[in-house]
């Protein structure tokens, strides 16, 4: 049986191929509100949220974005009703298995960042399997932040480094930004250039605190399940109009 030919999305003509963000990070917020507005259970919003993420991954890939990182579950999200937490864990597992073959066909390299040991054992197995299977793929880097917290990540790095100092393996003076980054979950991945947050909230909710130091932030009122091609186009278009100064004096001054 031959594989179904996949539709390749063309980059909208008024976007500049050479000025795309290399790495897009997204806080997929508003699933619950999306469902509530329709009189549906919150879980329906999460289901539809998966579809929106799948679509975004394909646009990123087709349009030439090298890396996409999605915030799927924060260290604070354990505070939600048990029913919702359990639904999400089961959803992650199901989606991962369902999508693995397609990710292989599309050369996606998936990785998970966060405190993965605290996730249900069966989900951990699927995570390990999917990372192993897609390891040698050559397409987009797709990172899913699951049980991720920026503060937890930084503390964890500090502990590891402190232990190395204590064992006399490194001098405190040797600790610099580049060494520190090697101990973050995201070691080896470039920093996000563009952060997209849906549902209008103007905060970063403990996401990639270190890595986001100079990310351009784009917030839309659209709820995550409604985030589509037009929305992504708008985010990229806004990004391309900005001047990234990194603390220097701008070229437009
Ligand atoms: C984001 O949508 C998904 C997760 C945090 C897992 P929410 O579930 O936070 O939706 P709202 O913010 O309640 O609408
Ligand atoms: C951020 O959304 C976490 C994820 C999208 C996974 P939240 O809904 O948890 O964030 P707050 O509570 O509005 O800050
Ligand atoms: Mg939310």
In terms of topology, how is this protein built?
Elements: E1 23-27, H1 31-37, H2 42-63, E2 67-74, H3 82-105, E3 109-113, H4 121-133, E4 141-148, H5 150-166, H6 177-181, E5 194-197, E6 216-219, H7 229-240
Parallel strand pairs: 1-2, 1-5, 2-4, 3-4, 5-6
Helix pairs in contact: 1-2, 2-3, 3-4
The chain binds 3-methylbut-3-enyl trihydrogen diphosphate (2 copies) and magnesium ion (MG).
Q: Can you tell me about this structure?
A:
The chain is of the alpha/beta class. Helix content is 40%, strand content 13%. The chain has seven helices and six strands, in the order E-H-H-E-H-E-H-E-H-H-E-E-H. It has a six-stranded parallel sheet, sandwiched between helices. The protein starts with 22 loop residues before the first strand and ends in a 13-residue tail after the last helix. Bound molecules: 3-methylbut-3-enyl trihydrogen diphosphate (2 copies) and magnesium ion. The site of one 3-methylbut-3-enyl trihydrogen diphosphate has 11 residues, from helix 1.
Q: What's the tally of helices?
A: 7
The H-and-E topology, N to C, reads as: EHHEHEHEHHEEH
Helix content: 25-40%
Q: What is the terminal-to-terminal distance?
A: 60 Å
- For this structure, what is the CATH class of the domain at 22-148 and 193-240? Alpha Beta
Any idea what the radius of gyration is? Answer: 19 Å
Uncertain stretches of 5 or more adjacent residues: none
CATH architecture of the domain at 22-148 and 193-240: 3-Layer(aba) Sandwich
Subunit organisation of the chains = single chain
Name the beta content range.
Answer: 5-15%
Query: What spatial order of strands do you see in the largest sheet?
Result: 3-4-2-1-5-6
For the record, what is the CATH homologous superfamily label of the domain at 22-148 and 193-240? Decaprenyl diphosphate synthase-like
Q: Structural class of the helices, strands and pairings?
A: alpha/beta
Which overall shape is indicated by the principal axes computed on the Cα atoms?
A: globular
């Amino acid at each position: 049986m031959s594989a179904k030919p996949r539709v390749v999305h063309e980059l909208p003509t008024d976007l500049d191929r050479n000025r795309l963000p290399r790495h897009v990070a997204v806080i997929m917020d508003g699933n619950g509100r999306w469902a509530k507005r329709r009189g549906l259970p919150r879980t329906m919003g999460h289901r539809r949220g998966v579809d929106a993420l799948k679509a975004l991954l394909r646009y990123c890939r087709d349009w030439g974005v090298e890396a996409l990182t999605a915030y799927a579950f924060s260290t604070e999200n354990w505070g939600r009703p048990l029913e919702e937490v359990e639904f999400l864990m089961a959803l992650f597992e199901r989606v991962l298995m369902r999508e693995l073959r397609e990710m292989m066909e599309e050369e996606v390299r998936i990785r998970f960042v966060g405190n993965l040991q605290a996730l249900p054992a069966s989900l951990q197995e699927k995570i390990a399997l999917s990372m192993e299977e897609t390891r040698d793929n050559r397409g987009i880097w797709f990172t899913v932040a699951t049980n991720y917290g920026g503060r937890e990540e930084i503390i964890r790095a500090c502990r590891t480094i402190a232990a190395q100092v204590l064992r006399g393996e490194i001098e405190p003076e040797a600790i610099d930004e580049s060494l520190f980054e090697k101990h973050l979950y995201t070691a080896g991945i470039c920093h996000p250039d563009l952060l997209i947050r849906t549902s209008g909230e103007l905060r970063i909710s403990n996401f990639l605190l270190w890595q986001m130091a100079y990310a351009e932030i784009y917030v839309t009122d659209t709820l995550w399940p409604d985030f589509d091609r037009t929305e992504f186009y708008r985010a990229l278009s806004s990004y391309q109009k900005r001047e990234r100064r990194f603390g220097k004096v701008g070229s437009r001054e």
